[in-house]
Design brief:
By secondary structure, this protein is mostly helical. The protein has four helices and no strands.
Amino acid sequence: MTQPGANAAARAGSPGATQLPAWPSMALRIVGAIAGGYAVTALAVAACSAALAHAGMARSEAVALCAMLGFVVYLVLALWAFAVRSVVRLWLALVAGAALLALLWWAVA
């Protein structure tokens, strides 16, 4: 006879994985969605604007276009923050995305 909670790790998706309690996990997702999404979106807008201006588009038009696209990027990141399975995967993706966008911005500007 097995215990009712004996296979909690297996039901969670990865055998042997330890999970955070519900409230720290949700708090990290909220912070990731708001602050991490904002940071990645701001870097995406800056990198996109610099790249389009470098490619020959008028700087004002490049900034306006990328700023409008930034709203969509922020929405997608905020929704994805709550859809992703792992909080660790969320934060790794946010940090990696921010690092890549910062590198692109630095390379173009």
